[in-house]
Amino acid sequence: MSSPSPMGPNPPHMRTIKRCAVVGGGIIGVAVARELATKLDGVQVTVYEKEDRLGAHQTGHNSGVVHAGLYYEPGGLKARLCRRGVELLQEFCAMKNLPYEACGKLVIAQTPEESKRLDSIFARATANGVPGARMLRGDQIREVEPNAVGLSALHSPETAIVDYKAVTEALADDVRAMGGAIRLGQEVTKLEQQASGVMVHTKDGREHYDLVVACAGLQSDRLAEATGEPATPRIVPFFGQYYLLGQEARHQVKGLIYPVPDPRHPFLGVHLTKRIDGEMMLGPNAFISFGRESYAWNEVNFPDVLNYALFPGFWNFARQNVPSAVREFRTVVSKKKFIREAMRFVPSLEGASILPGTRGVRAQAMNGDGSLVDDFVIARRRDTVLVRNAPSPGATSSMAIAEYIVEQALQG
């Protein structure tokens, strides 16, 4: 796959496209719509969003972190689009006067084994060109985070925080300013390839477009299957609960503090994240959700539960990850366990009050053998592009993903 790069309007090798549709009003979908409207003169772009507002799901329930590209395989799509995405996002926030705070991040090792893994992450960060990344000895950690402890740490001073919901609204303003339409409350049920172009079906009717890009997030596999694509990778929903540190303890952490990823566990574990409004979050944990869009315990979507309960890949995943499930379940049922996880890095948080924060649902793409799909997956079906998987750093990379998708689609 070629690296994403800016393109001028309507290069001579591009096919003629006059009407485009984007399915999904999250940050990636709206960024794609803006990119299409920017690249093509005279194009009519329409965004379909089934909710009554933009960014209603993953975009509006995430941590707000702008990832710097520490962990990703050098040269891979994630690494390239993350680094490019940071540049584009930073420029956009400056242009729109949106808050963007480079509060910095520490990844802290607590054991010699974690220190070895952290050395490998530092090598990746260096290869990916993460600005200012450096290794710290245990006694140097307090120079960055006075209340944090550990054996060693990786410091990424440029890791930042934003409000992705506000970014999405600003992207949408640009789409509208360029003549695009954003249709809220319009659920797309099927995309049907024609001899030329695609018919977009909703419950209210159907319309023809020259090009359609589907960024359906938590519903991406269902829309892909309804369009004739394979059912896998399957989306299996995992919820993540955040808590907020009480006012009396908020000042004890200045930026972001993360654990070293453990290859035995599919999810990262509890970490501390500063939010753009100044709140300090603990979390998230990760546990199977009772619905793809269920943000409370009493919200059970039985078709969603059946969807993964009847999926052999889910049970393969479950068998392979019993210790992880136990670890995560403890943080689900016990706030004390939750804060004890954070106290491994900041012992002075003992006794701190915590309040329930936001809860998100992760669209985790899973293969039939139970393995998790880690990289971005973007499938092409003639005049349709389907974003099948856009995990973290999806929001960070959103404008670069849009650039990449549009470049590929317009050359096809």
- Quick one: overall form? globular
CATH superfamily of the largest domain: FAD/NAD(P)-binding domain
Per CATH, the class of the largest domain reads Alpha Beta
Overall pLDDT, averaged? 93
Counted beta strands: 20
User: How big a fraction of the residues is strand?
Assistant: 25-35%
Oligomer description: single chain
Give the helix level as a range of percent: 25-40%
Radius of gyration: 21 Å
**What structural class do helix, strand and pairing data support?**
alpha/beta
Q: Do you know the CATH topology of the largest domain? A: FAD/NAD(P)-binding domain
Major β-sheet, in short? 6 strands, mixed
Please mark out the parts with pLDDT under 50 across 5 or more consecutive residues, or reply none.
1-14
Q: Distance N terminus to C terminus?
A: 13 Å
